[in-house]
Amino acid sequence: MAPRPSLITFLTFILLVFHKAAMAATFIFLNKCDYTVWPGILANPGSPKLETTGFQLMKGGSRSFQAPTGWAGRFWGRTGCIFDDSARGSCTTGDCGSGEVECNGAGTIPPATLAEFTLGSGSQDFYDVSLVDGYNLPMIVEGNGGSGECATTGCVTDLNKMCPSELRIDGGDACKSACDALGNPEYCCSGTYNSPAACKPSMYSLLFKSACPKSYSYAFDDASSTFTCTGADYTITFCPNVPSLKSSNTTDESGSDPMQASALDSQWLANLATGDSTKTQPFSGIQFGFVLTIISVLL
């Protein structure tokens, strides 16, 4: 006797659930800047490489790819890049020094705004947006369809416009961290300052924190800068300047993905400083258990 259609449907759902567990997250990159951005990707030691280590993202463009459970690494945006027909060249900010569009295992040369992830560590994902290595462009990270806190984080302020002269790079396209620019141990949290008790916020990190209250501003800025979520996909948006919030599971009349229109409205900007956020609840553990019970009855 052929399996009943309802059983096939439930078994298909279970296979999809296990596929999602194997592929921990989908990363969606959106470029809302008025210029092309070349995202760079660096996996932490021991983490598998993703399908690319660097690519071109045109103005208004998007790209997505999947990462496996346990993946950890960082993303950033490179700007002012010039690459020839052989994909060789360099960037004004965020360059990884590979001489190619692909970073090939090389990290960013500061200053650059960083998005950092650890997927599925103890069932939770950990993520943050860091200015510890300086800043080159606005960036936010949004969790889509996860459970838990799943707060949106990032830096929407143009720090290049308020960067102190001693931290500003030539041309004003990026702002160095105090550690990178001045090298003092108290700014770098190094030497005798290598502990949370000894390394305190400086006037420079406080400037960054005031402008971007949910981003890492110095090495031990953990309490207000690290976020967790379970079972989510993540959207990384460069220059998030469209005044609307996303609808996570629908498309507009043109058929376009509404994630491409996601960013911040005025209320969300206020909530960013207080830790409030919007999030979508996933298929719950109770509902999942209910499905398994039905399957056992059908079998």
Automatic annotation (TrEMBL):
<feature type="disulfide bond">
    <location>
        <begin position="33"/>
        <end position="239"/>
    </location>
</feature>
<feature type="disulfide bond">
    <location>
        <begin position="163"/>
        <end position="175"/>
    </location>
</feature>
<feature type="disulfide bond">
    <location>
        <begin position="96"/>
        <end position="103"/>
    </location>
</feature>
<keyword id="KW-1015">Disulfide bond</keyword>
<dbReference type="InterPro" id="IPR001938">
    <property type="entry name" value="Thaumatin"/>
</dbReference>
<feature type="disulfide bond">
    <location>
        <begin position="81"/>
        <end position="91"/>
    </location>
</feature>
<dbReference type="InterPro" id="IPR037176">
    <property type="entry name" value="Osmotin/thaumatin-like_sf"/>
</dbReference>
<feature type="disulfide bond">
    <location>
        <begin position="150"/>
        <end position="229"/>
    </location>
</feature>
<dbReference type="Pfam" id="PF00314">
    <property type="entry name" value="Thaumatin"/>
</dbReference>
<feature type="signal peptide">
    <location>
        <begin position="1"/>
        <end position="24"/>
    </location>
</feature>
<feature type="disulfide bond">
    <location>
        <begin position="155"/>
        <end position="212"/>
    </location>
</feature>
<feature type="disulfide bond">
    <location>
        <begin position="189"/>
        <end position="199"/>
    </location>
</feature>
<keyword id="KW-0732">Signal</keyword>
<feature type="disulfide bond">
    <location>
        <begin position="179"/>
        <end position="188"/>
    </location>
</feature>
<protein>
    <submittedName>
        <fullName>THAUMATIN-LIKE PROTEIN 1</fullName>
    </submittedName>
</protein>
